[in-house]
C-alpha cells in the first residue's frame, strides 16, 4: 500500500494531538515545544496553522525546514538559556514526550487567552517499560491537572498505561483558556 504524506504524517502523529488540535483557532499560531523530527509541526502546518518549532537538535530542525519552509524553526537549549519566546503568545502549544518542569509556568504564560494546550508525556510507572525512567522526566500522578487547574479549563485528561505505539505509562491533557469549547468528536 502506498501512503501519501498526509496519511503517513497522521499515522505517526499522536492520536491525542490529532484529536484536540481542531480546538486551536483555525490558521492560528502554534508552538511545537521540543519538536524533535517535527511529526506534529508538519501535521499542524499541513492543517493550516502558523507553526513555530523549537528544539536543540539543529539537524532535525533543518530537515523540518526543508520539508515545510513555512515552519519557523528555532534551535535553542530550553533547559539552559532564557525562554526563547518571551513576550509572545500562541493560539496553541503542543508538547509531546518532553518534560522540563521549570518551563511549565512559561508555557501557561505563553498561551493566548483563548489558547489551547495539548500535552502528552510519560509519567511515573514508565520505568517498568524502559526509558524515560528518570523521575525528572516523569510526571507525577495528576501533575498536569494540578499545573493548569487554576488558570485553564480542562477539556480532557487521561493518565495510565497504554499498549500502543508501545507499552508505556503516560499522562495527557488538553486545556484551554476559552470557556465552552466545542468538543471534537
Ligand atoms: C523524545 S523527543 C520528542 C520529540 C517530539 N516532541 C515528538 O514527540 O516527536 C524529545 C526532544 O526533546 C529535545 N530536547 C531535549 N532536551 C532539550 C533541551 N534542553 N532543549 C531543547 N530541546 C531539547 C530533544 O532534542 C528531542 O527532540
Short description:
The chain is of the alpha/beta class.
Give the secondary structure arrangement, pairings included.
Blueprint (H helix, E strand, L loop, with lengths): L4 H8 L2 H6 L8 E5 L5 H8 L3 E6 L2 H10 L4 E4 L14 E7 L7 H6 L1 E12 L20 H6 L4 E10 L5 E9 L9
The structure holds S-adenosylmethionine (SAM).
Account of the protein in words:
The protein has 185 residues and is of the alpha/beta class. α1 (5-12) packs across α3 (39-46). It has helices at residues 5-12, 15-20, 39-46, 58-67, 104-109, 143-148, and strands spanning 29-33, 50-55, 72-75, 90-96, 111-122, 153-162, 168-176. The two termini are 28 Å apart. It has six helices and seven strands. The longest helix is centred in the middle third of the chain and has 10 residues, at 58-67. It is 24% helix and 29% strand. A seven-stranded mixed β-sheet has the order 3-2-1-4-5-7-6. β1, α3 and β2 form a beta-alpha-beta unit. Bound molecules: S-adenosylmethionine.
What's the helix count? 6
Mean pLDDT: 93
Bound molecules: S-adenosylmethionine
Q: Beta-strand level of the residues, as a percent range?
A: 25-35%
Q: Strand sequence of the main sheet, in spatial order?
A: 3-2-1-4-5-7-6
The gross shape turns out to be globular
> How far apart are the first and last residues' alpha carbons, in Å?
28 Å
Percent helix = 10-25%
Q: In total, how many beta strands?
A: 7
Tell me the structural class.
alpha/beta
Low-confidence stretches: 1-11
Largest sheet: 7 strands, mixed
Order of helices and strands: HHEHEHEEHEHEE
Cα-atom radius of gyration: 16 Å
